[in-house]
Amino acid sequence: MVLHTYTSSVSIKDLRFSWAPDSKDLLHIRDWHIGTGKRVFLYGPSGSGKTTLLNLICGIARPRAGEISVAGTRLTTLSASQRDRFRAQFIGVIFQQFNLVPYLSVADNIRLASAFTGQHQGADERATMLIEQLGLRGVQNNKASRISVGQQQRVAIARALLNAPPLIIADEPTSALDAAARDTFMSALLECSAEVGSTVLVVSHDHSLATYFDDSVDLRTLNLALGFNNGESSASVL
Ligand SMILES: Nc1ncnc2c1ncn2[C@@H]1O[C@H](COP(=O)(O)OP(=O)(O)OP(=O)(O)O)[C@@H](O)[C@H]1O
């Protein structure tokens, strides 16, 4: 089992992001830290920049200024291809629509996460363990297009956890699910990620999810660009 020992899983300093060089900042975050193994729920109104912030933390987008570190690595010092490799290895991403490859089997969708890192050692054993743990054994050879939404969400969890990443990020992962499926999803996600000590950052409009988390953060209180606070955008979940 992997246990992550970084003090801070996500660390943001003086971050500024705008969509165009001459447009006003969408995000300005002075100081935000998420401690290793913490579960954080991030919320805020539509259009406030939640997905953009997740993309910055994943290294998909680049800030105009400032520092973003994930598990001790400063993403801002990496090239685009280095950031892609870093993300494949160190960040498990769960998207709203789960983004499974429909013509691949459940097992191959899960193993895909190791194909992107080039580190295959132990991947098959770990995939088998996650398939078992998430109750997917009966459908492991089915194509992803031939499984239920509830099963797809569990495949997405398994794929995100295959490399035992220090950070799991999920953007509106329960928006397509009913209340019972949502609870199953959250329990499975948090249980499996706790086993490897992964930090979990989830964005959702659904406030009822907040009870699952160590901390809930309103992006409006972090983001100086919105002018909702008094120049204080410091927050830590340590
Ligand atoms: N590729 C893009 N180019 C320019 N502007 C964009 C782009 N993507 C998003 N935006 C704008 O950035 C702002 C923040 O978008 P973002 O998707 O981060 O918000 P959000 O808080 O996640 O919204 P929602 O809750 O509706 O998903 C919005 O005003 C959006 O229109």
From TrEMBL:
Q: One matching Pfam family, short form?
A: ABC_tran
**Ranges of residues in domain ABC transporter:** 10-238
Keyword set includes tRNA processing? no
- What GO molecular function annotation could you give as one example from this UniProt entry? ATP binding
Q: Cellular component terms, GO, for this chain's entry?
A: plasma membrane
The alphabetized UniProt keywords are:
ATP-binding, Nucleotide-binding, Transport
Which parts form a coiled-coil structure per UniProt? Answer: none
Q: Key word Nucleotide-binding present in the record? A: yes
User: What name does the UniProt record give this protein?
Assistant: ABC transporter, ATP-binding protein
Q: Which organism is it from?
A: Pseudohongiella spirulinae
